[in-house]
Amino acid sequence: MIGEPQSTTGRRIVAFSNRPAALGLITDWVARNGHRPLLVVTTPGPSTRRSTTYRDVVALSPPGLDVFVTTRVRRAIPLIAALAPDLIVSASFPYRIPPEIVAIPRHGAINVHPAPLPAYRGPNMARAIYDGAATFGVTVHRTAEDYDTGGILAQEVRPMPAQPSTESVFALLKECAAAALDAGAARAFADEAGESQDEALATYAAPFTDAERWLRWAEPAAVLNRQALALTLMGLDARATIEGGPYAVTALRPVPDAPPDVAPGTVVRRANGTFILRVGDGLVEIEASPAADG
Question: Does the keyword Transferase apply (predicted)?
Answer without folding.
Answer: yes
